[in-house]
Structure formats: structure tokens, C-alpha cells
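Hi P.,

Sorry for the delay on this. The queue was packed all week, but I finally got your sequence through. Input first:
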Amino acid sequence: MKNLLSMEHLSNEEILHILDRAKAFENGEEPKTARTYNVANLFFEPSTRTKTSFEMAERKVGCTVIPFDAGFSSAVKGETMYDTVKTLEMIGIDAVVIRAEEDEYYNELLEGINVAVINAGDGAGQHPSQCLLDLYTIKKEFGTFDGLNVTIVGDISHSRVAKSNATALAKLGANVRFLCPQDWAGDFEAYHSWDEVLEDSDVIMLLRIQHERHTVSKSFSKESYHEQYGLTPKREKMMKSSAIIMHPAPVNRDVEIADELVECERSRIFQQVRNGVYTRMAIVETILKGRE
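Then the structure:
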């Protein structure tokens, strides 16, 4: 495994290897890379969790993290992604973690670039590291994916989290359902009422409305969206006793989820953030070892 670009490229064995390594890191095991590697994080879109989580994971694995500020890079002068990454390769960077607004931006890096590429989010395409930490969170909770009912709720068509999780969870044996307004389903079949999915869901994964990716104005106010599609305290009480709540964040409180539920007993939202460090340690270690 020399790059991490899309969940569609990973086998079940590769997924489970990363989850096993994440567990090992959470249990205190030391990384197994052969030398110190130089890594740069190229974030051309805003990020709190993913960027800082990767930086923490890279340092814990023993990497040297080379600062990169997209707003002060030559990208603002028109330099291509390829030329930016090629320049970093010549400087001595071994791996780059990239988030960019273009879908499948990484295609231009697959030839001519010899550094490892880890996709930290491409437009409305894929978000494989978020998916892997979500999978780790679910596996810690249930021990398996087989037969679980996972309901993903919200802005499906614009969500790289939804697409990544739909691909991986289905491969691992889960039943993935979607709940959203009619015109937010994209290429997926979706339910439009909580009544059809609430009581038998093992995992409810909520998504932020990505206003920045909508090309036309939507008719929902925050209040009306919360009433129709948000997870309210009344709906939470109808969930299975063993069911959990997830959200990739950032969370819009009282929009996709009631404020009082963000840190309720069944919420795993902040645990996902913690799990992200262990999972990204596993990703970085696996990628770098794959190039040794």
C-alpha cells in the first residue's frame, strides 16, 4: 500500500490491517518504521480535526513534519499541484497529506511523482482517513460490521464522508441506508422519513450541510431542517439501547443534532476525534512501510 487515495482502492484485508494497527497504537505499541521520514500537510481547504490529527499522528510515528501554509505557497501564484508536490519531493519530502477542493485532484500526481500521497479529502469525492477512523470507532463498539444497520443522515450528495463510508461499510458487510431530502441523495437511494430507519439503526451518522458546495439556494432554515432531519431528543429516545451516534464534525448544534445530544452517553463524536489520531498513525505507518 503505497498511497491512500480512495476507499474504493482498498481491500478488506488492507482496511482491517489499518484498524488492527490503530488498536495496537491505542494499546501503547510503538511504530515500526525503519527510519525518520519527512512529511508535509498540504491543506488547500479549511480543517481543524483532520489537519491537526495528521500532524499529531505523524509526530507520534516519528516523522519530521515540514510546515506548509497553502495561503503563502506558490499555489496562490498559479503553481500547479503537480509542480508543488514535485518541488517538495526534490527538497526531500517522503509523503504528502493533501486536501483540495477538486474531485480526484490526485490523478495528476500518479505519474512523475515519487512521494507517497495520502488523500485528506478531495472535493465532494472521498475522505478515506475519516472513513477509516469511523470504521475503527464502529469496530471498537460492536466488534464486527456484518449485519449492522448504519444510517447516514444529511447532505449525502456533497459528502465525501458519506461516499467513503458507503463503499467501505458495504464491502465489510454492513447495511448502509441514507436519510435526506429528495434532491440531496445524489446517486444513492434514500429514505425521507426518520420513521423508516430510526428504531432499527445500530449507528446513526449525521452530516453537516455543506452550504459551500451547493450551487443553488436550499429551502431549509436551520429550524425546519432540524425539525425534519435533525436528531432531536425525542428521536434519540426511540433509538435502540445499543445504538450509537456519530458525526465527522464540525457539528452545527441544533441543526443536524440537538445541542444536548452532542456529548450524550451514546454519542461517539469526540471519541471519533481521539480515534482519528490512532487511525492516522496506522495509515502513515502503513504507507511509509509500504515504500521501504
